[in-house]
Amino acid sequence: MLTIATGNKAVAAAVKAAKPGVIAAYPITPQTEIVEQIAEYVAGGDLESRYIPVESEHSAMAACIGASVGGVRTFTATSSHGLLYMHEMIHWAAGARLPIVMANVNRALGPGWNTWAEHTDAFSQRDTGWLQVFVGTVQEAYDATLMAFRIAEDERVLLPMMVNLDGFALSHITQSLDTVELGDFVPPYHLPHAIDTANPLGYGPMTGPDDHFRFRWDIERSMRDARGVIAEVEREFAERFGRSYGPTEDYRCEDADVVVVAMGTLGKEAEVAIDRLRDEGIKAGSMRLRWFRPFPDLDLAGREVVVIDRDYSFGFGGVVAHSIKSKTGIEPYSVIAGLGGQEVTYNDIADFVRNRRPGTETWFGVSDHV
Amino acid sequence: MTNITMRSVTNLSAIPKEEYLYKCTSACAGCSSSLCLRYVLKAAGPDSVLVVPACCTSVIQGIYPGTAMNVPVYNVAFAASAACASGMSEAFAAMGRETNVIVYAGDGGTVDIGIQALSGAFERGTNFLYICYDNEAYGNTGMQRSGATPLGARTTTTPGGKPTTKKDLDRIVEAHNPPYMATACSAYPLDLYKKVKKALSIEGPKFIHILAPCPPGWRYPTEKTVEMGKLAVKTGTWILYEREFGKLSISGPSKAAMKKPAPLEDYIKGQGRFKNLSPDIIDLMRQQVQQNIQRLAREEAGVC
Ligand SMILES: Cc1ncc(C[n+]2csc(CCOP(=O)(O)OP(=O)(O)O)c2C)c(N)n1
Ligand code: SF4
Question: Given CB atoms, is B94 within the 8 Å cutoff of chain A?
Answer without folding.
Answer: yes
